Amino acid sequence: MDSKLVFSGVQPTGNLHLGNYLGAVKRFVELQDADTMCIYCLVDLHAITNWQDPKELRRNTIEVTAAFLACGLRQENSIIFNQSQVSTHTELAWIFNCVARIGWLNRMTQFKEKAGKNRENASLGLYCYPTLMAADILAYHATHVPVGEDQKQHLELTRDIAMKFNNDFKTPGFFPIPEPIIEGTATRIMSLRDGTKKMSKSEASEMSRINLTDDSDSIRKKIQKAKTDPFEIPSVKEELVNRPEAENLLGIYATLANQSIEKTLEQFSGSDFKKLKDELSDILISELDPINKEIKKLLNEETYIVEILRMGSEEADHISRPILQKTREIVGFLK
Ligand code: TRP
Questions:
Q1: Under a CB-based contact definition with an 8 Å cutoff, are residues 180 and 142 in contact?
Q2: In the chain, what are the helix, strand and coil shares in percent, each to the nearest 5?
Q3: SS3 287
Q4: pLDDT(214) > 80
Q5: What domains sit in the chain, N to C, each tagged with a CATH number?
Q6: How many CB atoms lie within 10 A of CB 31?
Q7: Residues 217, 223, 227, CA angle at the centre, nearest 5°?
């Protein structure tokens, strides 16, 4: 084991889809298998910054955990837990609320996007979402954080909080300055209905995404119906410009086949979309079918999943508690 410590969080707000799988969860598994200490958190406290139906929140937390396990995350190698079971996160977040400046939070583009026009009516939690995220990371002295492009600004804020804390309290190096591991563009999976939009669980149409819980028939159907264009598959990358749907389908194929986009173009150049879609469906099904079956199996063992989260939370508490205690002393709180 090296001294690298990886932390990442995923909101339990719905099924994981192909974009989450290729962009995030697969990377989580690779990092875990590279013998790095990894902590993966279902951020249920972040989820409730927007209204969540309690039954659905519970269900989603269990489903996303099942998906993590089905994709290869292992309790023996990683810590898997849900945020709300470990109170160090919220305690540290309060301290960070007093370190971060309102001006910093006012610059967060995700808040602006999510709050939309009706900002007065957004929850206060949505506004200070990034300080809780900083607490998630820094409560473990994590050094590396795999995140999507959209979370880069929040990670910058985390770094600013760590630096200001270290400065204000004259404790240089107490909080390490964490590095982002940004998902590559190769793993940016777009909507099957619109190649310019990211695949997302918030898009209304189910046909826009492949869920990890989709069976083989629905995968085939969604790929057959995926948007394309009237041209044939080109032979060079440059000709994919302004053909986002073609680029997306080829990109997914390339990622799953573990080969370059050039090699993939060579394979399909000159053919129509039918051939690409048939082969893409086959490769998707061979990758996702075992995961799909395993998720179904695990969902019948709810008590097992609840127990995994409980044990993970205990371990997470065990690591973050002494760091919080030290932080409390630095701030001047009595034991
Ligand atoms: N904000 C992240 C997202 O929506 C989720 C998250 C919460 C997170 N806490 C984190 C990611 C800590 C990385 C590290 O994707």
A1: no
A2: 60, 10, 30
A3: helix
A4: yes
A5: 5-187+302-331 (3.40.50.620), 206-297 (1.10.240.10)
A6: 21
A7: 150
Model confidence at 205: pLDDT above 60: yes
Q: Is the pLDDT of residue 184 over 90?
A: no
258 C-alpha to center of ligand 1: Å? 27
> How much is the average pLDDT of 78-103?
98
Residue 45 Cβ inside 6 Å of ligand 1? The answer reads no
Do 324 and 91 contact (CB within 8 A), yes or no?
yes
**For 98-131, what is each residue's pLDDT tens digit?**
999 999 999 999 999 999 999 999 999 999 999 9
| Cα gap 102→97, rounded to integer Å | 9
For 130, the token pair is 């990034």
Q: Is 277 a catalytic residue?
A: no
Total residue count of the chain as it appears in this document:
335
In the predicted structure, residue 270 carries a pLDDT above the cut 70:
yes
The residue contributing the CA closest to ligand 1 atom 15 is 10
